[in-house]
Amino acid sequence: MPTDFDYLTQLQDYYAAHGALPSYARIGELVGLRSKSSVSALIDRLAEAELIQRTPDRRLAPGEAFFARPLVDSVRAGLPQAANDTGQDSIAIDRYLVRQPSRTVLLSVRGDSMQDAGLLEGDNLVVDRGAPARVGDIVVAIVDNQFTVKYLAQDARGFYLKPGNIAYAPIRPEGQLEIYGVVTGSFRRY
Asked: What CATH number is given for 1-97 in this structure?
């Protein structure tokens, strides 16, 4: 017998394909529920779990937890271990990576000067604009009117930018060094 999680995954796939949630009638067709009361009860349970919400005009929209993904287990990067996919935790990726939505932007990495920091060409950076930067943070900086991503460093001569690849030299501003934002995460698609 299908569970609410099974129904939710069908709604998530529908949302990914169409950018909106279906009507009550279409939900019934989609998940195989025949009565309006069954669909309504499902929606009530999903709303209580903050997976779906009702908008003021009575439409359905994704709730706070709609985009959370199950965290089923950890995986070793060394020797193999027994698989265990019974985890019940979940992570809402946006909530996990984005601290303050109004200040968060995404930037794509070009070049290889931060490869030793794990930032590769084509990776997407999650950047908190205007966040206070500390020495050692990976920052997006405007140095002499040009953008770059580097470690923020400091020595007796002042602040400078340190690459994450020994093939590149540190960057010391000739004029102005401004921190655009602090990198809070990154992701890539394989």
From this structure: 1.10.10.10
Active-site entry in 90, 108, 150, 162: 150
**In the chain, domain spans:** 1-97, 101-187
Which residue's structure tokens are 């027994």?
A: 82
Residue 110's identity, in one-letter code, is R
What percentage of the chain has pLDDT greater than the value 90?
71
Cα separation, 132 vs 184, in Å, equals 12
Q: According to CATH, what is the number of the domain 101-187?
A: 2.10.109.10
Q: What is the pLDDT of residues 52-63, one digit of tens each?
A: 999 999 899 999
List 23, 38, 113, 162, catalytic entry: 113
Consecutive 10-residue runs of the chain (190 residues): their mean pLDDT?
Answer: 89 93 94 93 94 92 86 74 68 81 93 97 95 96 94 96 97 93 94
Is 36 designated active site? no
> Is 150 annotated as catalytic?
yes
3-state helix, strand, coil in the chain (%, to 5): 25, 30, 45
Considering the entire predicted model, what is its pTM?
0.72
